[in-house]
What does this fold into?
Amino acid sequence: MKKFLFLVFLLPILANAQDSIRVDISNPHATIYTHLYFLQTDSYEPEKAAKTILGLTEEKAIQKAIKIKQVLDGKGLYVDVNRIPINPNYKDTIGYSSYSRYVLFPQRMPQIYVEKIDGNWYYSSETVTKIESLYKEVFPWYVQKLQKMIPVSGHKKIVGLELWQFIALLFMLVFGYIIFLIVKRIAFFILHKIQQRITRNTNYEVKKVLKKLAHPISLLVTVGFIDKIFPSLQFGLTTNTWVFLTLNIAKTVFWIYVFLKLVQVIMRIYSEFTERTHSRLDDQLVPILHNFLTGIVIILGAFRLLTLFGVDTTTLIAGATIGGLAFALASQDTVKNLIGTIMIFLDKPFHIEDWIEAGEVVGTVEKVGFRSTSVRAADTSVYQIPNSRLSEIVINNKGLRLYRRYNTTLGLRYDTPPELIEAFVKGVRELIIAHPETRSDSYNVEFTGFGDSALLIMVNVYFKSLAWGIEQSSKHRLHIAIVKLAKELGVDFAFPSTTVTIENFPDKKGLNPKYDISQERINAVISKTVTNFTNEYPIEETP
It folds into this structure.
């Protein structure tokens, strides 16, 4: 009898001790564990789970607690209690540094979280307020009505699932496929109209890329449809967890594919734009921008995938930032070259195929890359100039000249008569005017001085073409015409020499050439030379 009375007296104490152990809301881990534990099938005590909700009657608190768990189960959000902090003074230093709160799923369900109130942890007032709308999103109004319409035979289980679930799953897949086909056509139509409005033309390559872009967009809509409907099938937490993980991975992969194709479309359109511009530096920017944007899409997509697998990307980013800083310090030259590349594309000191002088390097710009610029010299060798250095030194861009200036000096013999000097200068002027590749409104041909061995004739002309090869060809044609003019006039070019004059030399005549200074002959020679030059190199009419 004494033992019986002792047990009767001890049972309430043990029950209270059990409640104090099991119902624990002293920290985030304890609160969430208490809520979920007392809603499990083998430990179902909803009135204890309701103690994690503050400020409501027990009946309403039970309803809220059950709906919170149903929403989490319906979206396949598996709560790993081992990762929940047990610190009573825990603070979310990432998103809510001024409040003591813990968000279970910051990315997928940020509305559900616990917070510290008067020393204990409860589900937040925001969670309690929004749980009704969240429940309606996960389990729409028609779900319960459809379940009431299911006959008794529909609840027969096959392989652990009810018959109505198999039928609903089949209908969901069929409707999903129909939605995929419809959305694919609509997406392509809209994208094609937008492309035509932007570019004002139809490009086959862009159209082909748009068709590929419409495919993942329709898949995204289909996955969104399944994501919306699947919780209504009530397959259970384990199945929902794997299904929604698969759907989220699929959505992330499809979004990566969409943005990659979008980058491709934008680069196609930009490439068409650069082809209409005179600058070829813009053409060089297309592959650089394409690689850069593709890299950003892949990196962000990879971070999103890591988040789905439970990896804390904030820690990863922090580590990458510190590692990136160390890497940047160790590779300052690479960073300088990248900044130099950006400055080159912003300032555009030269364009592709421009002839430049950059320090000791002289040649044609062939390619501007991330790190360096390729310049091909006249001997066909290629210089790789780091962009950091190229952005700092003085660049003489010959390609930006309006014309190519050519200046030379011709030397005539000292015994050339003034009449022939004047005639030679006049003839060279006429040749420059008749030359198809020289400016006829800007030139100089003058008798400028007396050299050691020659009378100096300055020739200053401007060639129209900026291409180095055409300039050399134009010089050749002008030089040949001048030599022919001198020959016809009887004018000799001087060279460094010493002349010894003997006043009297028996039976010998002077060695000085005989000059014909007849004005009629001079005019005829100039006219003939210019006519022959014009006929030999006719002026090409531009269409």
